[in-house]
């Protein structure tokens, strides 16, 4: 039995879209589950739009989310000669032909189809014509001779049985007038050369699949199995595009989403296994199958991504969490000095409370890192006379205690609440603002104990 081989084949004409990442993930997991191989093919034959920066972004994105691949990148443009040879072989066999229609003729055919409100299909004008009738001034394209009768059937591993009338598939171009191969030819030849056993991709490729199957049949190549996965939509049901916010992995990395959390979310986006929600990497590989993929589009829900990320923040090893945070800060915020790293590491057990992202943890930790407190303008308005009175009394009370623990601080705060006819917020909020610069942040006891008596006294004395 042949070893399972899958591939992910993006074009480096823009940043890798999150839908593409999910496609790569499904291919990778399927190969891993079957003990097979997964490959990355860079389809860079669109020379005008393909850019090295996008190729690097694709590679970096896959590395970030933990997807590895065999044998380096397969670069499609290196195989152009192989694609052209197959086109010429099809021409020789009489399974393709030269088409001398001018661009004006093609535009006219498209215009008529639009007027009749029917899909455009090339009229096969040159399918059976002799080349002796060919105009000398036009460089021909080469078209594949598609089947014109009967039906084609695809037993899709996700969608089930799909039928199509052969006469709806036009005689598609496989070599352009400048001699360059088109997508359907190049993809078919590369998939054959790479020995792909399974093609798992978005269901917007279904018509391409029927075209590529015909090329496979014409060349007497062994056909791979096909699986078409539904696309990802926005919450309002529209197809997610590269123009949407949070469409690339960079968008998620910047706000502090961790790779293992996003990988878990993408795994569950259109795939299920029993009622299980959380999958570590080993479980993802063990349980992944094509049967669990649904047939309907999935909706990208940022609130669910935050929720998944919060779960990982709360449950992963704190050393791992700190390493994620440190790297996040180095890339997007600031390089943390050694003393700041030590303070954050020692306080991570409470800094991560209620944090949905690494950015939240970073914000929660700023009061530890910054010696000087900068109070936000909106929060300054909350420091009224009653607040200043609480701060003054609290400062006096802590000077009377030797220890500085929750046990010694709780009676002080309870007495302030009782004696000043206020509540916990009336004491905790002004203290938090003065000690951290914001009314938002960790619990007041965590703030007090992490700063220590000396630092708390120093910061409170600077107020007013």
Describe it for me?
- The protein is mainly alpha-helical and 464 residues long.
- Helix content is 48%, strand content 11%.
- It is built from 19 helices and twelve strands.
- A three-stranded parallel sheet has the order 1-2-3, covered by helices on one side. It has a three-stranded antiparallel sheet with strand order 4-5-8. The chain has a two-stranded antiparallel sheet with strand order 6-7.
- Strand 1, helix 1 (18-33) and strand 2 (37-42) form a beta-alpha-beta unit.
- Helix 11 crosses helix 12 and helix 15 packs across helix 17 (424-436).
- The protein is elongated and about 105 Å long.
- The termini are far apart.
- The mean pLDDT is 93.
How would the blueprint of this fold be written?
Layout: E1 5-8, H1 18-33, E2 37-42, H2 52-65, E3 73-75, H3 80-92, E4 96-99, H4 103-115, E5 141-144, E6 151-156, E7 160-165, E8 173-175, H5 183-193, E9 198-202, H6 206-218, E10 225-229, E11 232-233, H7 249-254, H8 259-268, H9 281-287, E12 298-299, H10 302-315, H11 318-333, H12 338-351, H13 358-369, H14 377-380, H15 385-398, H16 406-419, H17 424-436, H18 444-451, H19 453-461
Parallel strand pairs: 1-2, 2-3, 9-10, 11-12
Antiparallel strand pairs: 4-5, 5-8, 6-7
Helix pairs in contact: 1-9, 3-5, 5-6, 8-10, 11-12, 11-13, 12-13, 15-16, 15-17, 15-19, 16-17
């Amino acid at each position: 039995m042949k070893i399972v081989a899958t591939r992910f084949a993006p074009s480096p004409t823009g940043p890798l879209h999150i839908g593409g990442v999910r496609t790569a993930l499904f291919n990778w997991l399927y190969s891993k589950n079957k003990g097979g191989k997964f490959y990355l093919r860079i389809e860079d034959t669109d020379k005008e739009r393909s850019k090295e920066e996008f190729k690097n972004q694709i590679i970096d994105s896959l590395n970030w989310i933990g997807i590895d691949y065999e044998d380096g990148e397969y670069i499609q443009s290196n195989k152009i000669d192989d694609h052209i040879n197959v086109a010429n072989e099809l021409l020789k066999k009489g399974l393709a032909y030269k088409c001398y229609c001018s661009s004006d003729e093609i535009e006219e055919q498209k215009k008529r189809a639009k007027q009749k409100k029917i899909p455009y299909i090339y009229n096969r004008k040159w399918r059976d014509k002799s080349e002796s009738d060919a105009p000398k001034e036009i460089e021909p394209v080469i078209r594949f001779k598609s089947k014109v009768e009967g039906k084609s059937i695809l037993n899709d591993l996700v969608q089930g049985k799909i039928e199509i009338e052969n006469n709806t598939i036009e005689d598609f171009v496989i070599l352009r007038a400048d001699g360059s191969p088109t997508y359907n030819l190049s993809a078919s030849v590369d998939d054959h050369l790479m020995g792909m056993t399974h093609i798992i991709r978005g269901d917007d490729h279904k018509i391409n699949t029927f075209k590529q199957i015909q090329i496979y049949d014409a060349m007497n190549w062994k056909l791979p199995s096909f699986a078409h996965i539904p696309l990802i939509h926005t919450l309002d049901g529209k197809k997610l595009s590269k123009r949407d916010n949070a469409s690339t992995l960079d968008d998620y990395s910047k706000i502090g989403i961790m790779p293992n959390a996003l990988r878990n979310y993408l795994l569950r986006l259109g795939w299920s296994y029993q009622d299980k929600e959380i999958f570590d990497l080993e479980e993802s590989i063990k349980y992944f199958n094509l049967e669990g993929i649904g047939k309907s589009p999935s909706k990208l829900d940022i609130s669910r991504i935050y929720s998944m990320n919060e779960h990982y923040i709360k449950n992963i090893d704190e050393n791992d969490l700190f390493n994620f945070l440190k790297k996040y800060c180095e890339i997007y915020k600031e390089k943390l000095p050694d003393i700041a790293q030590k303070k954050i590491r020692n306080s991570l057990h409470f800094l991560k409370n209620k944090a949905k992202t690494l950015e939240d943890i970073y914000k929660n930790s700023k009061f530890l890192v910054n010696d000087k407190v900068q109070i936000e303008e909106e929060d300054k308005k909350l420091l009224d006379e009653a607040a200043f009175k609480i701060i003054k009394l609290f400062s006096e009370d802590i000077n009377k205690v030797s220890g500085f623990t929750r046990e010694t601080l709780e009676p002080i705060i309870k007495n302030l609440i009782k004696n000043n006819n206020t509540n916990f917020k009336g004491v905790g909020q002004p203290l938090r603002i003065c000690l951290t610069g914001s009314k938002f942040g960790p619990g007041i006891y965590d703030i007090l104990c992490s700063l220590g008596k000396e630092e708390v006294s120093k910061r409170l004395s600077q107020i007013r």
